[in-house]
Amino acid sequence: MKVLVIGNGGREHAIAWKLLQSPKVKKVLCIPGNGGTTSMEGCQTLPMRTDDFEGIARFVLVQGISLVVIGPELPLSMGIADYLQQQNIKVFGPNQAGAQIESSKAWAKELMVEAGVPTAGAEVFSDAEAAKAYVSQQGAPIVVKADGLAAGKGVVVAATVEEAHCAIADLSNQGFRLFVIEEYLTGQEVSVLALSDGLTVRPLIPAQDHKQIGEGDTGANTGGMGAYAPTPIVDADCLERIEREVLQPTLATLQKRGIDYRGILYAGLKIAPDGQPKVLEFNCRFGDPETQAVLPLLETPLEQLFLACIEQRLEELPPISWKSGSAVCVVAASQGYPGSYKRGYPISGVQQATESGAIVFHAGTKIQQNQLVTDGGRVLGVTAMGETFEDAIAQAYQSIDCIEFEGIYYRKDIGHRIK
Predict the structure, then answer these.
(1) CB neighbourhood size of 127 (10 A)
(2) How confident is the model over 284-306, as a mean pLDDT?
């Protein structure tokens, strides 16, 4: 079978890489792809826009593609799954109504309350000054969220009232008009990516992400500077509790609202010191870089899981099979990220990193005049596996040390929470 993957990040490279490991997948095509998918055997990239729904549908039908996998949240929020389904194309990814769980934090919070899902208390404001007044009343620490897609950077955990006021003003200047002001929760953040076929939900192994740009989890939020899986903080009992208290009630409420949700239901949670999981947010797609740590450990063929979701056969599927051990992904970013940065710097050492035992997933890269160059804020994700986290961490850093480009930056403490 031939599979089309929509997107150009590290997540999409990881999805394409894992699909190509199945004997049933003969070819993967990526729109628009990146430098890694361009050079991967069995993969072809096409320079099309992800919002060209008509062109994508025409290409799929002409090429006889069996399955389309939507990577990023933006085309899902624009209704790409709806459009392709109308052309009788099999699509992994929720429809536009379901994608609101990520595209509108206010809508998602209302859904969680209706579902009885444990989550932080929050208020929604359409006026920036009213939001600031509420912050002054509540005090800090407090969380400020923009209502809309912000590439993982629309959330500010404010330590002071002044910091929260500045965040509201900054988000307002960026064009956001709705703000979710949320209580601050203590504990560790975890990511539980779950498969949904609209009727049944199945969690994958839990992961932990490192959002902040600086070591020790300091500085500005990013799309993610590294991840590891399976996180020890979520044991089998905790995962079962998340499935029972979070995932199943959320899916049931989506059904109640008439939303047929087929794709990834990604719960970002805080695990309190007493073990209570509470939802920080939901996403409608695979996490990035969590996917780069989760998929290397997956043994069940990925296309089997996708097709079971699309065809509503998830309940019939045998238990998902996983490799033993751990996986750690360290992200190499451009200097200046998550702020402004330059592109076009030559990248060297990827082959050496691969030969040293890592998997190098490309994110912000492209091939320019036969040279691999930087083309984004997060450039590469270097993933290593090991029987222990210590082994995986050591291998990831040994491999990333092989890679060079001007201004390369990566955190040196990915996995520091593991005890």
Answers:
(1) 12
(2) 98
